From TrEMBL:
This is Class I SAM-dependent methyltransferase. Residues 43-136 form the Methyltransferase domain. GO terms for biological process: methylation. GO terms for molecular function: methyltransferase activity. It comes from Pseudomonas lalucatii. The keyword Cell cycle does not apply. Keywords: Methyltransferase, Transferase. InterPro entries: Methyltransf_25 (IPR041698), SAM-dependent_MTases_sf (IPR029063).
Amino acid sequence: MKGAKEFWDKRAPRYARSPVRDEANYQKKLAITQGYFRPDWSVLEFGCGTGSTAIVHAPYVERIVATDISSKMLDIAARKAMAAGVENVSFQQGTLDSLELAAQSFDAVLGLNVLHLLDDVDAALSRVHGLLKPGGLFVSSTALVGEINVFWRLLISTMQLVGFAPYVNRLGKQALVSKLVAAGFSIEYEWLPGKGSVFIVARKCT
């Protein structure tokens, strides 16, 4: 399997053209998240892709730092933000463990459709916890690869071998919830928008 950066750099143009799979559920996730936001908040989104969600959320907070491993994704994101006249979103290339971000500097962290792509979820959740202010929120939307049927898991494994799919872990919902609690979060909201995915709002315990 190719490196994650190379994989996503190559797919950035096609990814940018891909429509949202379930527009109604996407809009519900946006609304739920925005219901928590405050105008003076600082927000981090890691794994932001081409920036669509960060751009939509921008009017509801003071600033958003949006990061991704793919520089090609971020090039597209920056152009989209400029076209939309959004000036309070800054884009940075890197990962949670490579970027120099100040501890306890964010009111909310968003990890949308990204946790299942990480090989060390525990380390990522620990990092998120450290970046959040006391009582801060972590909003995640995660594919539950461990709960899809065997055929699809085998297909993903085959596609990975030939470079057509990225690394994915096999998290289940209960395992993810347990990891969040172990990392120091309490679950405020949990929703299963469809088979094989979960949307969670978790609060950093003070």
